[in-house]
Specification:
The structure holds two protein chains of two kinds. Chain A is of the alpha+beta class. Chain A folds into two domains: 107 residues, 2-Layer Sandwich (Gyrase A, domain 2), CATH 3.30.1360.120; 78 residues, 2-Layer Sandwich (Alpha-Beta Plaits). In chain A, 25% of the residues lie in helices and 31% in strands. In chain A, strands 8-9-10-7-1-11 form a six-stranded mixed β-sheet. Chain A has a five-stranded antiparallel β-sheet with strand order 3-4-5-2-6, with helices on one face. The radius of gyration of chain A is 19 Å and the shape is globular. By secondary structure, chain B is mainly beta. Chain B has one domain: Folate-binding superfamily (Folate-binding fold), CATH 3.30.2270.10. Chain B has a four-stranded antiparallel β-sheet with strand order 3-4-5-6, with no helix packed on it. In chain B, 20% of the residues are buried. Classes of the chains: A alpha+beta, B mainly beta. At the A-B interface, strand 8 of A face strand 2 of B.
């Protein structure tokens, strides 16, 4: 290969610049106004986390060197155990499939992590920024589990769905990756194109318990 | 509604998370050029439709998105086992 090819940047920063403001897929819903004017007490609280940095990592779970390097770069351990997650300071890693993990970091730090992987990760792997295609919602409160039970065909009892467990499943007529953050707190990673539909669905499903929107 | 054990997620999930992908264990011919049109046509289009034990390919479409095999009874709908691609079924029509 020619020398010029050595200078090709294989990692690209997907954030356009500080002067260009990013907009979440629920920008139009104006959740700040809904939060300020809506009910302040209720059984279900929904919070939108806009513009989180989401990265899909695919590598070989059987390669101990790769797993160790990835865990070191992430600062949390990369688990091979199905349906698990690990979370640390500003980073969370979800098991998606035997060779795939979904990493979330602060939106502004995704490029740094991509660069660090590009420099130090051994072997054959892929790390792709999927933040543009997904968005994150958090459902919490006394009746959060009731809303989840209405929406997804998964057993949400604490015995079978403990804190830290991750499942990807059908969610209403769309799909979601659900992580249990606490007994009554769930994180949903959903498709950005379904964000409006799922927001309306959750709003409707929460109505009977009293819905609180937080920003 | 079938209750299906995904061998990759290692737990039972509802059928709506899965898609059936037809008959399993169909190896692609190693030398397609050497096949007659009849043999190639049979590889491409002709599938078994047994009454009883059937080995099928399924995909956990809404979950881990991995393919796996299933031994299912087409009469009773009973699922005898699910196993990963590359593994051999323990329940067969002969056994």
């Amino acid at each position: 290969m020619s020398e010029a090819n050595n200078n090709v940047r294989l990692v690209m920063d997907q954030l356009p610049g500080d002067d260009i403001q990013g907009r979440s897929p629920l920008h139009h819903a104006d959740l700040a106004t809904v939060a300020a004017q809506g009910s302040q007490e209720g059984g279900v609280t929904i919070q939108h986390h806009p513009l989180v940095g989401l990265l899909t990592l695919r590598c070989n779970a059987g390669d101990a060197d790769q797993m160790a390097a990835a865990s070191k770069l992430l600062g949390v351990e990369l688990h091979c155990q199905p349906l698990t997650s690990s979370a640390g300071e500003g980073v969370a890693v979800r098991w998606m499939s035997p060779d795939e993990w979904l990493i979330s970091v602060d939106g502004a730090k995704a490029f740094d992590l991509e660069t660090a992987f590009h420099n130090d990760m051994p072997g054959h792997y892929a790390l792709v920024n999927v933040g543009g295609g997904l968005t994150v919602l958090e459902v919490s409160g006394e009746h959060a589990v009731d809303v989840m039970m209405k929406t997804a065909p998964v057993d949400f009892h604490l015995n079978t769905f403990p804190v830290g467990k991750v499942v990807s499943t059908v969610f209403a007529k769309s799909s979601a990756t659900i992580r249990r953050l606490a007994d009554d707190r769930f994180e949903l990673v959903i498709r950005r194109s379904f964000a409006d539909y799922l927001w309306l669905w959750l709003q409707d499903a929460s109505r009977e318990y009293g819905l609180v929107v937080r920003t | 509604m079938l209750h299906i054990f995904c061998p990759h997620c290692a737990e039972y999930r509802e059928e709506e998370e899965f898609h059936a992908k037809g008959q399993a264990h169909i190896p692609r011919p190693l030398d397609p050029e050497a096949l007659s049109d009849k043999e190639w046509g049979e590889y491409l289009y002709f599938r078994k439709n047994p009454r009883g034990i059937h080995h099928e390919l399924w995909v956990h479409a809404a979950g881990c998105r991995k393919f796996f095999n299933m031994t299912r009874d087409t009469v009773t709908y009973e699922i005898h086992e699910t196993y990963k691609i590359g593994e051999k079924p323990t329940v067969t029509a002969q056994s």
